[in-house]
Every structure is written in structure tokens, then in C-alpha cells.
Amino acid sequence: MTRINRLLTALAVASALLSGMTMSAAAEFDRTIIPRVKYGGGGDWYTGPTSMPNLLKQASERLRLPTQNENIAVSVSDPELFRYPMLFLTGHGQVRFSDYEVNVLLNYLDNGGFLWVNDSYGIDRFIRREVRKLYPDREFELLPADHAIFNMVYEFKDGLPKIHEHDGKPPAAFALFDKGRMKVLYTFESDIGDGLEDAGVHQIDTPEIREKAMQMALNILAYVMMQ
Amino acid sequence: MHSILSLFGYNLNPIRNIESSALALSWGWAGLVLLLLALVPLSWWAYRCEGKNISDKMRRQLLAIRIVWVMILAFLMCGPVLVVSGWVPQRNRLAVMVDTSRSMSIKHKETSRLDQVKKLFASGFIKQLEDKTGIYPEVFSFADNVSPVSRQEVEQFNFSADGNQTDISNAVRNVIGNLGEGSMLGIVMISDGVSTTGDNPAMALSNIRTPVHFIAPVQEGETADLALHLTRPPAQGYLNSSVRVRGEVSLHRVATSSVAITVRRNGEFFVQTSADFASGTTKAGFAFNIPCDEEGSFRFELEIPTLTGELTSENNQTGFLLKVVRERLNIMALSGRLSWDVKFIGNALLTDPNAQTVHWAKLRDDRWVCSRDLKPERAVRNPDLTEDLKIADVLILNAASHDMLRPVEEEILRRVEAGTLGLLILPSSQGFAELGYQGTLIEKLLPVAPGREIWRGTPGNMVLPSTETPYNFLRLIDDPIQNVEFFATLPKIEGIYEYDGLKPGSEILINSTIRGNADLLPLMIRSRAGLGNVMLIAGGPLWPAGFRLVPTDRGFSPYSALIVNMCKWLANRREDAQVSIELASSRGYVGQGNSIRVWVMNSKNELQSNAQISLTIKDEPGNLTSLFCIETSEKGCYEATFVPAQRGLHRIEATARYQGHELGTAKSELLIEMPTAEFDEPVIKESLMAQLASDTGGIFTTVDQAAKIVAAIDSEPGQKLESKSIDLRDSWLLLIILLLLPMVEWYLRRIRGLS
Questions:
Q1: A contacts of B454 (beta carbons < 8 Å)
Q2: Share of chain B above pLDDT 70, in %
Q3: Which of the residues A25, B342, B385, B540 has the least number of beta carbons within 10 Å of its own beta carbon?
Q4: Residues A11 and A42 in one domain
Q5: Which residue of B has its CA nearest to A221?
Q6: How many domains does chain A have?
């Protein structure tokens, strides 16, 4: 190869790399991140570390949404909370917010933020108590099967799907509405978070079950971004 | 020297006394030396001795004659020019300038400032100046512009204080330009020193060499004054919302802690508010809200009390016209994918109770989801968007591919150009090339040329290009400088698309520092398509600018205000689809031009050229004024300037005709007020006038001591230094000498028997 040919080849490679860099940078514009809430009270807020990265990966592939597929945790008192328009809260036990955290969370939700609470099992009593602190005059409403959230990207004619069996109770989606907007979604006795985790983490979750969990989670994300 | 040069026949006029002179040669001195070196041997050879003996005396005489002749010849061949400088007598001039702006009508103890000037003239001031200098002064009146005043008018004192603004700098420059600075003995300016427009007089007068003497019509006395000003009064309000009116009250020699402001709506009491003064301050702001609970035009008048013997009561009242319109702000968003920006724009819009939103987003394949007023609905397949588009006032495009827009593309273009649909284009992870806009009708609407787009993925701040932005939606903070700082401190955007350039007529509203502080890239760009507005946001995301402010004391409201007001501006509603009137402001001033633009469209909703516009304006007493509209460079736009003669509500009606057919009529209203600029600071500016006089070598005094000015004016005859170039070859005497010298030599040689 002559010297000129080598030079031209190097230039072509460099320009291809540069254009590739430009495109990848553009694709990362306004990336969606859904951090998990690092709460107090002793509950395992860290459970299911692969669930959100998997959801974001699928959101990128199926909804063409720019995402940052990482498992990020943020406490409510962290000033960085307002970098994220949607939060994911999960666990098996005690959840407790300080008075300061209640005020911040209220401010967050009233100005466009959203909280998705996933009941991994045993969180019900605590989360209802904490949400009552946020909106004392509001109650969780049971979402009917024909609610739009079950018919966004995918159709769920029977409402919230059952992903993980605990007490044999039926799954239920509760929502807290304020000023006409859903601010908190509480998926009870379904454990979509488990279904979002990597294959093999929960042996009993078949691929079909896991796909259902993913479809419902994508519906929730789409609903939040449309409201 | 003057005599010698005159003897040689050189014309020195108009120089009387030579101050200095300099000799120059066209060939230079070196040329002269070289010429001599050539001519002297030549002449010696030509007149060489034939061998006859002559006396030494004769030899010296002949040699001297020959050398002198050769030297003169060589000197003249080199093109000698004598440059002489000397003093030239001038005709002296003296200017007297009388301020005839409205501030000169302010009364001090029942006598107006202009009346004081009248008294001064009646006391023989002009005659005294004439006696001192031997010339009659040139008298001018000045306010908005400068006019010469004849001797007869001066004697009759034909001056009236009716100028709406004062430009001292321009007035002085004008007079000096007319009379010539070299011949001026001085300028006597009789003014209160209130310069309301033009350059800073201190800067403008610092370069002139003519002494400017100032006479204040009265001495700054103990007279008190209260003044009321409004800060950008609102012109339009929306039904079921409220507008906030801000203003300021200033005090001069008044000791009070509070001034009551009475507000009247259509002549009836509306509200009373107050301006509360902190200790030691002379200015205090006030504000009040006007709830817009009824449609229509409302005239608001504000008034503060008038003190006994107050300097002027002209600045104690002001007003504005508020038009309340039904807000039917329907915003439609079309998204090719989900977006946090569209969600937060929706959140912001719904803070306005009059706004309605509909957001259509394509999720996957042919599955679309719709959200009305941010309430998501069940997904549908291939929806019909035309019904929502029909009622939309603003369309937001977010990553909407051309395939999605194809069924409504023509409708979008038609409605934007008709001015019934504003277009907001948001950035997305895809550029316009990937969205397939190139070569489509949508591309015509873009304010940028999308041929080349480069993504710059680095964080950057927002920068307003100017502090005095003409767009209200970009004024989130009243103070312009703080407003610019506010935008600069908003959370950074992540990146921006850079384009080849802006299309003609496009305008950058916000820049970004993504490429560097000194190399700004356009972030928010607007353009006009027909009658409609198009806005492109080239970078983002925008939502963190609102959401990340929530935990701060600024909160979400600045973001909401920006989005809501921007969409209102984009909506660009008009009363009439065919003919519409565009006013720069709903408020104007007596004597000042108001630009009225009329936009005309034909029945196909195309902008119409060569239309005939009939524009009539009716004032409150019912007097009609007809104006001729000139077609502007913008297609379908016609313009006229209206200079109102009196205050009050003026009703404007424009009728457009094309080839004899009437295209339509539009109506609008304009509230005319007396200009208050002359009364904003009614106090006599003694210190300014003293400084200006001192800077120019003049003196400052008050009208009762005008004799000092007469004494100070230099009455010496004027003269100026002039230079003149004289060609020394142009002399009859020199010609004679040149001819005579060879003749003398020839004669001497003949009588001695030489050849």
C-alpha cells in the first residue's frame, strides 16, 4: 500500500469513527434513568438490582427511548432527586420517611415527579402509612381492569398481571390521584420487580411470566410519560 | 514677505498676514541637485571661451549671469510650490437656542419656564448681545428637532412649549453644522437641561470647540413634585386569569412615607393601592392585579394626588388599554416517541386554567396513545389526527417523522401561514434528516437550513442575546439584567444540534454556550411563516430547567410562565382571518409615530400583494383620519404611520380590497396618552448645565443673571488660519527675468566682440 493510500484509509477510518461518535452522542440525548428510592426504616430497598436496568434496556429497544441502563439509588433527601422524573421503590419490609423527606417527596410529586411502589412482599402496611403522611386526605384507589395503564404499549384485559405468588391474594394496582394526576402507583401482590430481574434469579418465573412483567412495566413507564 | 510675493504677482487671497511658509519641490531637492549637475557643465560648454582675452571683471559678470540663469531655470523645472499659512478674517456668528420642549411649560410660582424666557427677551437680551458683538444672533428653537426663528418671530416671541422630547446633543450639533464652528463666537442655550432622548450631552459636547453658555429659566427652587410611571403596562389579558401591573412613584422635595394611587377602569373606581417609601428613598414601586373576568377592552387610568403649587401635574396620571380575550389555547403535541420534555411542557401548560392539551404519541408499529389534559387514554391504532389539529392553536412536534405528519402536512402548512397555528419544534435523539423532513413542506417552515446538522453533546448554559428582549415570554424577571442572569444560571442543557445557518428572517431568542462562552450556538430560534410563528428549540432537554428548580426558591413557576406565555405568543390569534391589524403596542403618545401594520390574505388564505388598504382612525370626539398604507417588503404586509394629535381612545379600522373586491375588515384600538418623558424628571438640571458649560468653555447662569453671559462672550473679530499653495512658476516677473538674463549676456558678449 502506498503512503497516500494509507493516509486516505486512516482519514476514512477517523471520519467513520467521528460520525459514529456523533450519532451515539445524539442517541443518548435526554436519557431516561429510573433510580430506586433508598429509604429508611430497615427495609431492603436494594432488592432486585437488575430489574430497573432490564426495564430501561427494553424501553430503549421497544419504545426507542434513550436510556441509561444502570441500577442507581437515590435517597429522598438527596438534592439530586430532582434530576429524575420517576422513582422506583421496592422491598419486603419497613419503610419510613422523615418529616423532611415527606416534605421533599411531596414537593417532588406535586411538581411533576412520579413514584412507583412495587410490593415485593410485606411492604403494604408501611407504604400505606407513609403515603398517608404525604396526602392525609387522599386514599389509594384501585385501578379497574379497563384503566388506560393496562392498555398502553400492551393490552392487559384482566388488569395487573400476577408475576410472583406470595399469599395467594389477587394482584391489584392502587393509585393515588391528586389534582387529576396520578402521583403514586402501588402494584400490590404482583411483584413486577421480581419479573424484571435477570433470568435465573427467580427460578419459578418462566420466560412468559417475565415477559408479562416487562410489558406491564413498559405500560407503567409509558403512562407516566404521557401524563 | 507678503509684499515680495505680491510683487511677483502671486495671488495670496484671502490670506492677509502670513503666519508661516514652506517651500516644496515636485521633483524634490535631490532632483534639483541632479539637474544642476547636468545643466551647469552643459551651459559652460555652450558658452565656452573662444580664446579671446577678456578682463577678469567681465569674466565674473558673465559667469554670474550664466549661473543665476541656470539656477533659476533648474529651480523652476523642479516645480517649486510655496505653501503659505495665514489668518483669514471671518464673519462672526452667535447662536441663541431656546428650548421649546413641554418641560418648559412647567410653572414656578405661576410663571412657566418659557414665560421666563419671554421676560428675558423682553428685557433686551438679544439687543445686548447684538451691541456687544456687533452681529444679530441667529435664534433657534429646539425640542424634537431644531428650527431657525426669524427676527420678527423673536420680537413677537413666537415660541410655544409643545415639543415632546428634548435632544440637546443633536440640537447643538445641528446648529454648529449650520453655522460652521470656525466662525462661532458662542452658543447661548436657554433650557431647563432636561434631555430626554439622543446621546448623552456630556459625551456629545465634550468635543466641540465653541463655548456653549447655558441659561436656566429659573433657579432650582423649593417646588415639590410627585411623578407616576408605569413599567411596561400589559396590553392583553386572558379571560379567567389576571394580569399584574407594575409602576413607580418618585418624589421631589416631598416628605412622605406613602403615596396613594387610585386606579379607574372605564372611568369608574377600580382599586386603590399605594407606593410605600423606605426611609431616605425618593422612589417606590407599586403593583396590583387586574382579574380578567370579563371579555372586552378596558381603559385603565391611574392617578396620584396633586400637591398645591406642584411643579407639574402632567406626571400625576397615566393610563393604558387592556384587552381581555377568551383564552382558547388548544395545544396539540405529536410525538414519534415518548418524551419527558413534552410531559413537563404539558404540566406547565395546565397551570393555566384556560389551556387545553392533547398529546398523541406513537408507541410502536401502528399503536398510538393519546393523552388529553395529561390524562392518558387507551391506545388506539392509526388514529385520525385531523379533528384535534383543526382546533389546535399550537402544534408541538417532537421526533415526529415525516411519515407521521404526511396526512396532515398540507393542513399544518396552510394553518401556520394563515396565522391560526403556531409551531413549536422540539429536538429529539433524531435529527431532521432522520425524521425525513428534507424536501418536504415541513422543511419550508423550519427556521434553519437542515442540510447539515451536527450534534454537540456537551453541557451548556442558556444566554439571552440582549437584555431588552422584545418578547414578553422571555421576561421571567422584571429587571432586564437580572433576567439575563436568571437564564444564564438555569440548569444546563445536555446538547444541541448545530445547523449550517438560519433562514432569512429567522431570529435567535436564546443562545447556548455549548461550543464556548465566546462562540455561542442558537438554542431557541423563531421565524415567521406567512402570518404564523414557528419556534425551533435546537437543543435540550428543557424540562430540567423547570423541575430542577423546584427545590430552590425559584420553583417550577418560571418554567411554567415561559412555556405558557411562549405558547400564547405562538398561538398568534387574530380577529379576522383575511385582514388583521398588528400594533407594536396598544398604547401610544401624542405627537409620536405609531406603526400600524395590516396583513392581508385572499380567499385561498394566501398572502395578498397589491391590495388597496383603507385605514381610518377615529378619535374620541369622532374626528376621522385616513392613512395611506404602503406595501412592505414582506408579502401581504402593508404599513402606515399614525401620529396622533390628541389623547384618548382611537378606533382603527382597516379594509382591504383587491381588484375592486373587498377582502375583509379588521378593527383594533389604540390608547393615546400625553408623552410623560418630559415630566419624568421635571427638576431643572443645574448641575448638568454647569458641567456642559464648563466642558465647552462657556458659563452657566440663571435668567436673572443673563448679563454675565453677555459679558463673557468674546466680541473680537473672528479669523481663522488658512493655508494656500502657490505655484512659483506662475509669475510674470520671473518670466521676464528668465528672458532678460540671456539677453543681457548676449548684449555684453556682443559689445566685447565675443561669439
A1: 22
A2: 95
A3: A25
A4: no
A5: B338
A6: 2
